[in-house]
Structures are given as structure tokens and as C-alpha cells.
Amino acid sequence: MKNKHGAICLTSIFILLLTLNSCIGLSLSIQMNKDGSGRLTMEYRISKMIYSLGALDGNESMPSIPIAKADWDRTINRIPGAKLASYSSSEDKQDTITKVVIDCKNDQSLLLLLDSFAEKVSINMQGQSGKLDIILLGGSIDDSAYDDDMMDLMRIFMDGYNFSISFNGPGNSTLAVTDGSGNAAPAQSSANTVLSGKSVSYSIGIMDLLDMKNGLGLKFAW
After folding, report:
1. Which tens digit of pLDDT belongs to each residue from 143-198?
2. Which of 24, 63, 69 shows the shortest CA–CA distance to 46?
3. What's phi and psi for 65, nearest 5 deg?
4. Average pLDDT, whole number, for the chain?
5. What does the DSSP 8-state code read for residue 63?
6. Which are the contacts of 190, defined by CB distance < 8 A and separation ≥ 6?
């Protein structure tokens, strides 16, 4: 897993959350403006069960999650043109919830930011139109170490947790969903795509995402 620009590797955080018996819901919102500037909003929730499981298993040394604001500050400061607009952390009865909002001065800073947690990202802007391609977890997750009992346990704990991403571009937006190699993605019962003018969103259950052995690719266009 990569660690670019001396920043904390968000890929490792995401995979860590998905693979250490944890329960997570993650949502990303990308706002791209006509001049290439943009805003990324990320919210992730972690079930408090992860901490009790860690204690029961003698894993109290497991890395602290979610990341503190100081860690986010260090990460964002290493991406030219990016600025941490806000950070918050709260709890409800079930989860710890962290939300960060990051402003990007231009398409290159947005590209670097997205590239810090995705397998591969490209942005191609041509006047009022453009494309944003994201390959998320393309072949990164190998569940071969999990036996059937472990996977059944994960399905119970992760029930109701989703991954979602939304994109709002300068013009009417579309989305093509592929696997990590650019081929048509296999059908998943929980997957849902919604198109609404300049906005497009995609969501999928965390376990269905893990079941996509060849990864997930998202091709936004406007």
C-alpha cells in the first residue's frame, strides 16, 4: 500500500477498517467547480464493537481509529493547494463518527488528494466537460486469510454499513461502474446508482464491496 508525499496513507486506513474485524460506513462527496477547484467531504463511522472485540482478543495495541485532527492537518499540509476546512468527531449509541471537509484549489490538488486513498485516479478536463476516473481497492483486498466462520461474523457485524460516493460536477453528470480492471462490474444486490442533473451518486453495502474480488472502478463524466 502506498504512502505518497509523506502523508498518512488513506488506502491503508480504509483497508485496515475493512479487514480488522471492524464495522465501518464510509461516504465521500466530491464537488468539482468549473475552474477545477473542488471540495471533498468524507464521513466514516466505526462501530464501537471494534474496540470491545480488540480488547477481548488481546489486541489493545491495535492502531487508534479514527485519526485525530492533528493527523489530518499533517496529511493535508503535504498536499499543495489542499486545505482542511473542517473536522469533527462525535459518537452515538452505536458508532464513532468522523467527518472532514477538504477544499482543493485546483484539479491537481483534488487529484493528489483522491490519489492518496484510491488505487488510481485520473482527471481530464476539456472546457466545460471532463472525466474523473477512480479505481477503488482494485485488487487490494485479499480475503483468502478469512475462513467461512470469520466471513459470517463480518457479515453480521457489517450489516447495515455502506460505502457511498457522490459527485457534483460543472455540468450534467454520468457514472459508469466497473471492476478494478475497467470491465463491467458484477451485479450486487445492495448497489444503487442515482442520477440527478449535475449530481450522481453510488452506494453499496460494505460486504458486497468486499465480495468484489476484482475491485471497484467509478467513471464520472460531465
Report:
1. 555 566 666 766 666 677 888 999 999 999 999 999 888 888 888 888 999 999 99
2. 24
3. -135, 140
4. 78
5. P
6. 162, 203, 204, 205, 208
* Secondary structure letter of residue 180 according to DSSP: T
- Number of other CB atoms surrounding residue 185 within 10 Å: 19
**What's the average model confidence in pLDDT over 136-140?**
58
* pLDDT category of residue 215 using cuts at 50, 70 and 90: confident
Work out whether the CA dihedral 202, 191, 123, 67 comes out positive or negative: positive
Asked if residue 135 lies in contact with residue 146, where contact means CB atoms within 8 angstroms, the answer is no
End-to-end CA distance of the chain: 31
- In terms of Cβ atoms closer than 10 Å to its own Cβ (0-12, 13-18, 19+), residue 193 is middle
The grid coordinates listed for 190 are 445492495
Could you write out the DSSP letters of every residue in 24-37? Answer: EEEEEEEEE-TTS-
- Among 103, 97, 120, 92, smallest CA distance to 29 is for 103
3-state SS assignment for residue 104: strand
Beta bridge partners of 177: 218
**pTM given for the model:** 0.76
